[in-house]
Amino acid sequence: MPPGAEIKVQIFRNGQTMTFDVSLAELPDRTARLTPGGPAEALPDASTDAADLELLRKLGIEQAVALTRENAAQYDVTFKQVGVLIQRVRPTSVAASKGLTPGMVITDVMGQAVKSPKALVDQLQKHDLSKGVRISVLAGDQHVFMLLELDAE
């Protein structure tokens, strides 16, 4: 859909679904810039174990780390709050279909702040992903909300 198009958007907030009329606009291309010289090296996160990675991989988040000054600079992200920096997203995944890209920072799940991949997984596990879980994402200098949903297993 082109910028300027009028659409209806459903949001999920405080346990209720609401519908709004929205005019689309173009998001500035600041969400996934890497430093000059090519892709960044992945930074290990010792707090993330195999079980945590499994849930994130089901969503399509292949690599994520706690946001630090160093990796924020690496992805041209403003370091002004805690969050989980997305480093790699599987192209045909739920995360990709919702618009998550490398360089975005997940700051909370259903209103609860997350500061590490483990905290992100812990918060996601408290909710029913088949019904949808709201996350807040820092994309460039804008906060956006997304609803992540997994098919019931």
Structure notes:
- The strands form 2 sheets. Strands 3, 4, 5, 6, 7 and 8 form a 6-stranded antiparallel beta sheet that branches. Strands 1-2 form a two-stranded antiparallel ribbon.
- 19% of the residues lie in helices and 32% in strands.
- It has 4 helices and 8 strands.
- With 153 residues, the chain is α+β, with helices and mostly antiparallel strands.
- The model is unreliable at 28-47 (pLDDT under 50).
Which descriptors apply to this entry?
6-stranded antiparallel β-sheet, 4 helices, globular, two-stranded antiparallel sheet, 153 residues, 32% strand, alpha+beta
Please specify the SSE layout and strand pairing:
Blueprint: E1 6-13, E2 16-23, H1 50-59, E3 61-66, H2 69-74, E4 84-89, H3 94-97, E5 105-109, E6 112-113, H4 117-125, E7 133-139, E8 142-148
Antiparallel strand pairs: 1-2, 3-4, 4-5, 5-6, 5-7, 7-8
